[in-house]
Amino acid sequence: MPLTPDQLDTLAGLAIEVPSWAYGNSGTRFKVFSTPGVPRDPFEKIDDAAQVHAFTGLAPAVSLHIPWDQVDDFDTLGSHAAARGVRIGTINSNTFQDDIYKLGSLCNPDAGVRRAAVEHHLACIDVMRATGSTDLKIWLADGTNYPGQDDLRARQDRLSEGLADIYAALDPNQRLVLEYKFFEPAFYHTDVPDWGTSLSHCLALGERATVCLDTGHHAPGTNIEFIVMQLLRLGRLGSFDFNSRFYADDDLIVGAADPFQLFRILHEVVRGGGLDAASGVVFMLDQCHNIEGKIPGQIRSVLNVQEMLARVLTIDEAALASAQASGDVLAANQVLMDAFYTDVRPQLAAWRVDRGLPADPMAAFLASGYQEQIEADRVGGVQASWGA
Ligand code: PSV
Ligand code: MN
Hints:
Blueprint: H1 5-12, E1 16-19, H2 42-56, E2 61-66, H3 74-83, E3 87-93, H4 111-131, E4 135-138, E5 143-144, H5 152-169, E6 175-179, E7 189-190, H6 195-205, E8 209-214, H7 224-233, E9 237-242, H8 259-271, E10 282-285, H9 294-313, H10 317-325, H11 329-340, H12 345-354, H13 361-368, H14 370-377
The structure holds alpha-D-psicofuranose and manganese (II) ion.
């Protein structure tokens, strides 16, 4: 079924936050390859992110990582973003790169280190105040490598104390978003390994604490759409970190590894009201482009989300409900598959043209000369890279 005008309007509400770190160099522990024209500071990262929005109309916000994106004056960075037609989105804290955090941050056995980690989050809240950002996203690298290394339960108690201090410092219009990950960099256990742990802490903190679901942070075979459904049902899905993976936390382009999984996830988003502005669900990308172009990689990513959402919107929900009610297993499955195999691309191209956007954003960006320009202009200085 083609998309109806109403469904196209729903699609128009899709806003994706792009991560500042996607524009810098990144790699694996084996090698970080250098790409000409890569930004040298947060201002240039915003410039590149703004290109993604200009060509797709899908990416009005840029997520920052502190201290990677530390600047002297965040008011100026916020104005720079506004001048480029985008805004600052989620602020991500980083307590995983200082030496003091070797044994953890909020869960560290040393009270002084725990205090430093809380202070870092308070500094992030100041950045939010300066930039108008409303979400503080916390992902902790905390965990242990060896059984017996530390007291699992004591670490949870320390975590809950630290989170409470941070939550108490938020302004009424700000939220805390707690991201979980079942492994890495700790290999025996992590302190926030799953959505249940994240949710328990959020419930204890208060209603402005929600869960961040990074699609790459689950064991292979996990039914992620079930988690999406449950968190939406409980009103605690704060945000997505979209990416895709074949093996571990690969941070590849969303929808590249398993498009059908993205379709199933987005179906639960739609069913659970996650597209409504009132739901507060933030659609963020958390990706790195190690070998492909950074800006084209981000353009492809936001288009993948839009395209898969459009396919979801073509689902004949009435036919699905009736097949489900009558226990017709194959008919119900067929309704989903028909939508999944619907080619919405020509309709999306026409929809873009109606809104003054290029029919083919990727081709338009490649023809724009922007990439050649930044390669010529950005000489000297130090290129930004993952962790810098
Ligand atoms: C951790 O793997 C993570 O998903 C967190 O969201 C970090 O902020 C991000 O990756 C850093 O790339
Ligand atoms: Mn993430």
